[in-house]
Amino acid sequence: MKYAIDSGPHIRDEDSTDLIYKRLLLVLIPLLLFSVYKNVFLVFIENKYPLLDVFYPLIVIIVACITSFFTERIYLKIESNRLGYKKNLPFYSIIPGLFLSLLLPINVPIYVVILGAIVATLFGKMIYGGFGENLFNPAALGYVIIILLFGSLLSNFSNYLNPLELEKYSSVVTLDYTSINYNNLVSPYGNLFNFLFGTVPGSIGTTNAFLILLSFVFLSILKVIKWKVTLSYLLTVFIMTFMIASNHGEGIWFPIFNLLSGSLLFIAVFMTDPVTTPTTSVGQILYGLGLGVLTVCVRFLTDNPERILVAVILMNILVLLLDRLGVKSKQDSNYGYIFVLIGVIFAVIVSYFVSRTI
Amino acid sequence: MNKIEFEDKDYLSKDKLIDLSDIDTIYMPLVVNFSTDVEILVKKGKKIKKNDPIAIKKDLDFSIVSPVNGIINDISECVYLDGRTVKCVVIEKKGRQPKEEMVEDINAYTKEEYLELLKKYGVTSMGGGNFPTYIKYEPILKTLIVNAVECEPYITSDYVLAKEYFKEIIETINAIISINKLRECFIAINEKYSDLLSIYSNNTINYSKIHIVSVKDFYPIGWEKTLIKEITKESYDKLPQEKGIVVNNISTIYSIYKALKYNTCIDKRFVTISGERVKEPTNALLRIGTNLKDVLPNIELIAGDTIKYVSGGPMMGRALPKNDLIVTQNLNGILFLDDIEDKKVYPCFRCGKCVEMCPANIVPVLIKDKVNNPEALKKLNPEKCIECGMCSFICPSNIDVRSFVKKAKRSR
Prior knowledge:
The complex is a heterodimer.
Chain A: H1 17-44, H2 51-78, H3 80-83, H4 95-103, H5 110-122, H6 138-149, H7 151-155, H8 163-168, H9 182-185, H10 192-196, H11 209-221, H12 227-247, H13 253-260, H14 264-270, H15 281-301, H16 308-331, H17 333-357
Helix pairs in contact in A: 1-2, 1-11, 2-4, 2-5, 4-5, 4-6, 5-6, 6-16, 12-13, 12-15, 12-17, 15-16, 15-17, 16-17
Chain B: E1 17-19, E2 25-29, E3 39-40, E4 47-48, E5 53-57, E6 62-65, E7 70-79, E8 85-93, H1 111-120, H2 133-137, E9 143-148, H3 157-164, H4 166-180, E10 184-190, H5 194-203, E11 210-215, H6 224-232, E12 245-249, H7 250-261, E13 268-274, E14 282-287, H8 292-295, E15 307-311, E16 318-319, E17 333-338, H9 353-357, H10 364-369, H11 374-377, H12 390-394, H13 401-410
Parallel strand pairs in B: 1-14, 9-10, 9-12, 10-11, 13-17
Antiparallel strand pairs in B: 2-8, 3-5, 4-7, 5-6, 7-8, 13-14, 15-16, 15-17
């Protein structure tokens, strides 16, 4: 009989990285289906648009996934000696492209999609050593490169409209969060329920807030994502926009609108992936807080309210620092309270400043 | 959420017992508290009496004593339970074994005499640490916690001992309380051992200072810090003695009993022999110093491919390359397990589960990253690791996180 040498432990938890990422992709399916329903099916049954236009959103998603997949394959071929052991992670490789495509406007040119997916996979993930080693969220990095090279593409409101919406909303202009006015922001698209259920214009796969919230619950229970990051982010944005709204005599609709509109919820749930967020609890809470403050700044102080992903990239840089604070708090929990308190005070000051500016 | 609830494996060995203590060759590994920095006091070919020192660890002023009368046969090497090959003294049991003389009243010792006895008869913690027990009793103490929680699956040796010798244990605890002038004692028994709970509750009614506590069954409740927190709600920095608390494993209490009542060292202990590959899991009464390969022919194994031969529980134990492990005071079990086939290791994706799990409140994933950077390790306190293995257990990528932390711990 042969004896296996092993330092243990000799029993292991059954959960595995493989299963965790399969769950992540599984949870995305309803979102994808909704996107196809809204941007393809509803357009298709009108029966008056060219087929290429009808299926265009689907083509974007597929092209992004394929580009991402092959970029990783080719890179692994070239660098096989260094990254050999990572070869057996096939389906993870579509993730950067998939997430990127869901974040892009519907009428994005195909070459932009391909470029974004290559950048996301190659510079966002592979050059750091592949899955698990990356500093930046790959999809966020791809998106930021697209902002830099094709900025106008993303700020042009009509690019977010599918053929049906193009007829309906031709007169409406870009979202301007600084005009805290229900009639300007919400009324053109119905009411807040339209935002909740995603029947408003927006990026390819990020409009249905309800499904994203549902995914959040599932992913948290299944321990796929770090719920502390998402929750502290959403809370921060909610409280800050609530304060801003109060200062302008507006009610609770405004913070809710802020959470439901744009890609904010999608970013909160899917762009705060485990790899690029802190590992300590306090680090995670501070990450969410920081991202919230930056998001509010981007929305209210810049011309391009939809560029929250720049904030994600900025926060990615801070992960190591936040974890250091997290380690300190683990050793003495008093530090944790102090750090979070400082963060909250900072957020309040920023809210005050923002509401004075706009 | 730093606890794990395991599937029950205790039923395998719980109510079975065999005596395999009839053995003549005794191997004494020269290790105290995992340190091999000990000085040998004996020579090959010389006679030795039971309770005579074999080797001394100078800095702890503590000696390893011979468990038998006999002749020093050899000074050679053997496998210790942590997998290391260490120096050992081989004693051939010979001649008449000494008769055990009973001391009538063990409450009458003074504290100095008590400490001297613990030192002289080589009492160490039998739960795993192998730390000289007398040192724990040197400070002024108020509380004794007797640890009978056995939180690792499969292992039931403490249960068997606690059940077999409950009278002796209660007598000893009572003596420890009066000698050390303690305020109270808690006997912590795992809730899964309901029969032990009732035995101990019924037999301690007349002892006002002894309290029986039923503790929840989770891992690592057996760790001092977790146990103390659970019972007295107190937390300490480095040692429980800071708070006037001493924690002893229930087997150690029996070892103390031997020292107080019979003025002799402990020479036998229960060892659980269990696991999927053992046909009839059981508890064996084994002589301290037994080479397991001498007694294992009595244990029938289920044949098959690669087997894991684990010294200790499935979490803390080590799979050893050969079956010639020596029974030491701190060996509570031997497991024969199937080698898990699917051990595919994925890259770490920083899920933070090890951080959430760690009962010592350190950050295993960051220690793993910085394992070759001593400067950065300073801030991460790897020395606080208790090697419980929960980080490796939970890791979805099957990374053996603990081995990185252990390496970091040793590099300091």
